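To close the chapter, one final illustration. This time we ask the reader to focus less on the individual chains and more on the assembly as a whole: which components sit near each other, and how the overall shape emerges from the parts.
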Amino acid sequence: MTATASQPTLHVLLIADSDSQLLACEALCSAPTALNVHWTFSVIPRDGTPQALLKRLAERGTLRHQSLARLLRDRRLQHFDAIGVFLTGSKINDIRLALQRNRQRPLLFCGFNGVVLDHFIEGVSWRMGYDLICLSGPRDRDALEQLVTGTPFAQQRTVLTGLRRNAPCTDCTPLAERPRRLVFAEQVIMPATSSERARLVRLLSDLARRSPNWDVVIKPRIAPGDATFHDVETHISTTLQQTLGVPPTNLRLDYRPLPVLLKQARLLATLSSTAFFDALDFGCRAIAISDLGLQPNYGGHVYAGSGVWRSLEAIPNLDALDAEGPSPDPRWLEWMGYSQQFSPFALLEALNEQKHRTPEPPPSRIGYPGNAQSSFNQLRLGAEAAIASGDWTSARELLWQATMMRPLHRGVARRHWAVRQANPLIRQIALLMSYRDLK
Amino acid sequence: MTFLLISDGVLEHSACWLMAEALEQQGLRCITAGPPLQGHQPLTTPAPQLSIDLAQLPAHPLLEQVSAIGLFLQNPDEIPRFIKTYQNLCRAVGRTPAALFSGPLVPLVGDALIQDLSLRLGCDLLLVSGEHQRRQLRSLTFNWPISLRVPPVICTGFWFPQDAPCAPTQKPLLLALIQERIPTHMGAHEHLLRQLNSWARQRPNWTVMLQRDHSWNATTKLMANDEPLADNLLEAAPGQLLPLLGSCTACLTVSSPWSLAAMAWGRIPIIVGDYGIHDEQNTTGFFGCGAMHRLRSIPHLDAVRELPMANQAWLDGNGADITDGPQRLARALSDLALREEP
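The assembled structure is written out below.
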């Protein structure tokens, strides 16, 4: 589908910070649509965000770098038809609360980045109240429906945007003509423990030794020094050296972008759901590693139904696996959202349909606070209430808890210092100087 | 049929004792077994008939006499170990193992539910509290291969008595269920207790009872000594959990599962929402309960009377509408035995 000048126009702002969220935004704006969509990306600056990704986004729309505080004060926000928020936890909620104060406001939508392996309920509770929540497929929709049925959130709107992140591959080499290569797409926290990471490296090394006519390539999630959403304790290159000493000659690291590697490989082995579905997009066969068992925090329970949940240890050699031609169960693929019928096109259609309607305020009923204004924000607001009533013990306690949660938050640190002052005059001056409107 | 019910914690002992009583009323024989409990307990339960350390239990000759074994352990990580040891011993002596049934007793959801299932896969029958859990398990195990052997799942309702042991007291009583490790934020526990003390002081006509939902040591006090305590703020004596749940006007907690008893018995529930909906606070399971409130939204204890009851649809989905749990269990085990007959 191609857009023409006569088609309706949508002005959409996407807000994101980490590289994986930016990749989700890139996938969203790559979707084919008959609408004219003007994309703007507001990137919350973070160290180590890959420049190549920012460059690609700049080619697709207007790219801005703004801190969250500046962004929320930006009057231009009101000019968009819709704003998509691709951040984590409380920040998703902060933006909704800030923007929903205006009756006339853009439509707000948010989503999850790829497959949600765990913490779905927490994730949903941060997202409740958005005009639209993007979900991958029937699996997520089913989980959300089970959660909200019989509650005031039962009318929460959702749209299924699928798991295809890449346009159909036109330059992909047919599988049989690709080099005998297996790519292992690393994840920085899956597995998380150093012993499990070492075990995985050992399994790959053994498989490489059993398959001397194959290349086994480890694609690190990030280059040493780059940042991602998760903290990295030991880079995979170090794990490789510390585990194997001397790796087999046909096992190596490759830092090229994953799509490049997937287009030139026959097989992918991974625990990463994004890599798994990217492989399918690029015509590469994918297996999910089962050697670590049915560990729900690594998504074992999700992959178990895939039909390609395989033990590396049990594979005689890669020729045997290749000859077998592993392919995911179509029923499972559809359940997850990997199907032609689910795409970001559905989101754009829904936004276009709703853009002239006045957005409805989120349901508010006693007994159902969700995660709104909870945790960190809640502590700050609680402290302000305590300050207003002169309850200095509670104010100190709440701000102390808030500083425990975010020790680097300067505003909270200043406020905490202010309420600790015993001299009423100094305390009052400090309170005036550290005051921020939190509502 | 003779059942052996193994448990190791106060909630588990109490659930097994109730289950045994109900099964015996159906003419089935039941033996309870497990280690004796140490320290003060929130509720009084008869000691298991066979007092034994869990590590010694798989090899006990009693296990040869029973047709089904129920495993209800506080720490589900122990379950695969028990099953493996027991089944290996049976194999070694050429004996057919008894049917094993188990379940989390309290309603779990999401990550906690699937994590729990992953530890109970070796069982022959899985018990969950309500239809909500069964539906979630169906989704969470979508398309799993037969090799993973997901046991049949039945809903058996809540683990506590269906009827409250007593009516609410005339004078208003707030029962605060204090958990051992929740809320997890440093200082949050103290803050919660300080709030309860302040409420008690504001409304002397109320009684505020602090009730631990776990075992405790006689020397550990809940409130710090330097805090001036309201006269109407009291720490509950051991063994009083059930009568206090029955007699309270309202029951407050962050996420104690015993709050479900207050909800089911029609007392006013207050699930403290200040710590959000988070797995680490065990509050995800209370999403949709309709009883989550921030401490700040309750100006004084009289305002508690205006708070709504729990969302009945949510409560029913979690097991409140199941009144024949033990009968369902007996039926399912007898079906299982029939299926396995040659």
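Chain A has three domains: 9-163+340-354, 175-336, 375-433. The first strand of chain A starts at residue 9 and ends at 16. With these observations in hand, you are ready for the problems at the end of the chapter.
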